[in-house]
Amino acid sequence: MNAQLFNLESRLDELENEINTQYCELDTNLDALKFNRIELESQLEKFEFSLTNRLQGSISNNCRNDLFNLGYTHSQVDCMSDEEVYAALDKIDEEIHNTDQDYSTGFEYLEKQIIEMKRDYFIDRKERGLGNFDEAWEGEILDLEYEYTVLCLEKGLEPLNHVITWEG
Questions:
Q1: Distance between the two ends of the chain, CA-based, in angstroms?
Q2: What whole-number distance in Å separates Cα of residue 32 and Cα of residue 10?
């Protein structure tokens, strides 16, 4: 029995030594992985910094080119900081937005005028039992339709059919 107990204790010591050896190897591997992770994070930060600098330069150059294309001179743009370039483009974007709003309001007003004039005119003609277009009214309506169509075409839009070809 003592021999068996001795053999078990020896075997237990061997297993304990194997476990300690494997634990040390795992600990060494874990340390290596931690080091590799730190190294990779450092490389990633360098890459991100480099990419950001490259993109920032490209964005800045593209924005400066946009200002040239919008009529700014080289002397005006060259003395601007990047922030001033971005601010100038933001201001232009705001002006474009305001112009779009003005166009929209103008379209809505002209559409409303055309529809109301046609409605009033045809109601009036129906009440009076007249069958022919009155040339003065026709001229005013056509002038408004023309102005509306020109605004639409300048804006690159298709005029609304219900405004242009109203059926009474």
A1: 117
A2: 33
* CB atoms inside a 10 Å sphere around CB 164: 15
pLDDT at position 164 is: 43
Per the structure block, which two tokens stand in for 67? Answer: 């200002």
pLDDT of residue 163: 45
CA distance 67 to 70: 5
Q: Which residue has the tokens 């009036």?
A: 124
Determine the Cα–Cα distance for residues 167 and 158; give it in Å rounded to an integer. 19
Task: Evaluate whether 152 touches 104 at the Cβ level (below 8 Å).
Answer: no
For the stretch 80-107, pLDDT in tens is 888 898 888 888 888 877 777 766 676 7
CA atoms within 13 A on the CB side of 114: 25
Residue whose token pair is 């056509």? 142
Give CA separation, 9 vs 6, 22, 67, in Å.
5, 20, 85
Q: Which of 46, 53, 50, 92 is nearest to 69 (CA)?
A: 92
Cα Rg of the chain, angstroms: 40
pLDDT for the residue numbered 59: 76
Joined tokens for residue 78: 């060259």
Q: Which residues of the chain have pLDDT under 70?
A: 52-57, 102-104, 106, 118-143, 159-168
